[in-house]
Design goal:
267 residues; TIM Barrel; eight-stranded parallel β-barrel; binds ligand LARABZUK; tryptophan biosynthesis; phosphoribosylanthranilate isomerase activity; indole-3-glycerol-phosphate synthase activity; Indole-3-GlycerolPSynthase_CS; RibuloseP-bd_barrel
Amino acid sequence: MNDSDELAPAVAAILRSAEARGDPDRGPVSVDARSLPAALADAEADGRAPVIAEVKPTSPTTEGTREEDPVALAEAMVEGGAAALSVLTEPDHFGGSPENLRRIREAVDVPVLRKDFVLREAQLDTVRADAVLLIARFVDDLSGLVAAANERGFQPLVEVHDREELRAALDAGAEIVGVNNRDLARLEVDLETFESVAPEAPDDVTLVAESGIGAPADARRMVEAGADGLLIGSAIMDGVSAADDSESRGDDPLSNVTENTRRLTRA
Ligand SMILES: O=C(O)c1ccccc1NCC(=O)[C@H](O)[C@H](O)COP(=O)(O)O
């Protein structure tokens, strides 16, 4: 990873803090993972859009920080039909923590993806999750980290943004690939990114469309383009564009999170 000059300043700062974070003081963890591909397929089989709902207290592109208990947020998402959860563990720019993930995974029975900027093997051992995000652009030894994640029982979800990164992910042995519609160089979101990369992926890969899915029509568009899973954060956490109209939003933030999730899982 040597292109921090080409990244949005917020992303370069995220990477600096990921590099500086200490490694856990223990050996390799072992995980008995809940299957993410199976959970997504089960959702589709019973008529729900396969949503991976993200517990994302804040981000560089969000105003303010959600103060609700992360476990309550996660349970509200599952109640709304989420097939799986994504939980931020990045503390400095997303308000996440490994402890949030540990508590959420204990409280729900759906698969939980660890959302962070994992750069080296020891960082895998910070907390047990069912799946772990590895960002192709930022990981120097992608094959090594995919293998290290698999050895521990984690399901690696390798994030790409273009066809070249998709090839690198497949060469590294990725079986679950996320195509991020958010360009981390400029932080702009464009759903055409998924549409241009998805046709290049083999059929046996589980493909996840990430970022920028704000409304049910976006969710349908991504599924039509080949998405097996939909990673959705902001539209569930704040629901600005998920709600059809502001009158349908109530005063209870957790009910709104459930309702935002439900609208998207019913897409
Ligand atoms: O979300 C951000 O502002 C962000 C900024 C810099 C790097 C990464 C960022 N997001 C990471 C994500 O992948 C999203 O949280 C996830 O795909 C959900 O996206 P969205 O539904 O658009 O909140």
